[in-house]
Amino acid sequence: MVSSSLRILDKRLDCNQQWTFSLDGVVVEPDHIYRVSVFNLPEPDIGDYKINKTITIPGSLWDPDVTTAVSLDKELGKFSIVVSFKTAQYSERYRVSIQSSGFRCSKDVSKIQPFFVRCKNDCGRPEKIIDVCQDPVNTSSAAAKQQPEGFKVQDRKRVLIIYSLDHPLYKSIVLSLCAFLASKCGTEVVLDLLDSRRLGLLGSIQWLDWHREQIESSSDKILILCSRGVKAKWRAMCGDERVILREDACSPAGDMLSPALSLMVPHFVRSASFEKYIVAYFDNVCCEEDVPSPFLITVRYKLMKQFEELFFRILDTERHEPGRVNHIEGLSEDEYHRCPSGRALRDAIEAFHAYQLERPQWFENELLRSSETSVEIHDDVKTTKNLSTHSVPDWSHVSSHVETRDVDFTGDGTGLNVA
Fold first, then answer.
1. Which helix (H) or strand (E) holds 376?
2. Cβ distance 290 to 311 under 8 Å?
3. What CATH architecture applies to the domain 142-388?
4. How far apart are CA 35 and CA 290, in angstroms?
5. 46 contact partners, CB below 8 Å, separation of at least 6
6. Contacts of 403 (CB under 8 A, 6+ apart)
7. pLDDT tens, 366-413?
8. What ranges do the domains of the chain cover?
9. SS3 for 384?
10. Whole-structure pTM over 0.85, yes or no?
């Protein structure tokens, strides 16, 4: 706020002309709105004593006229993005940023930051949306091959994963599946292990119910991964002996599956269709007997044998259409492990499968008696640390979906040069 006073004595303008005032030295910001008020003190007997006027300061006069071009090198399997723009008269340095979600089909954002003398690092940054889409779908029938344009995955889907912490090796499988869904399939994954801050603020029931409501009001899905622990905890909810797993006792959030089943099973059985819920299990380390009875009325998918069918459910797309069968490259049982995240998932499944073969009573060994629970939580800090540091190769794809790369440029009369 800037204020100034002016005292006028015995000065009158002829013919009732208005006074003219000016104020110099006030620094204003582009794209801001200012209000100028003029007061007459003391208040006159007739007329207004205050005049208000709103002034809008225009933004930068620089029009970068940003254009983008996207090309694909099919041999190398890489995209190239070229960003072109006009330089400004009073800026010799620029920073170009391309923010990418890193998936096959994405809306990338290009930002150009000039460095003018007055605003320096706070100058306005024009943005340009870059539509980068690569169609990963081909078809298996001759009729479909005559149609070069298969369906494109336009919308990024979200999946809430419900599971049981049966064992550290099974937790590694769940995390690896999340990495594969995010990096290979472009799916947003909601998992308690990846949202510990919000989970700690809301609590398990509120966290689960909030995500359930979000998914119920959208086209997103809830994926229920069935296992020995899921079946045992469901039986405990139906009156059997209480089940406490070693991993639940070591987890800060505790048992997340039991409250999830309490919230979601009533909605599941009352729903007109089961399109929101997807039931699956890992065939090599689990079996169909691990599926709780309420979920036996819907399709159960074997992973990774039927992962492609499951992903079509996530996309709300029919795999089988008249005259053709849709196929997404890299998601079948024989192909999914050819990418880094898929390879990590296969290795995690094989490691747990080998562990089960060596220790047939592994699940019974993971069960805790009530007297052992407090000891397990407080007694062995080293064990807790070891259980929480199971790393997943290629996990950066899940911890951060957005990658930004900044490049500095200098502008001259001939064009742009990399600084």
1. helix 370-378
2. no
3. 3-Layer(aba) Sandwich (3.40)
4. 69
5. none
6. 99, 100, 102
7. 998 765 554 444 444 333 333 333 333 333 333 333 334 445 544 443
8. 14-56, 67-132+403-418, 142-388
9. helix
10. no
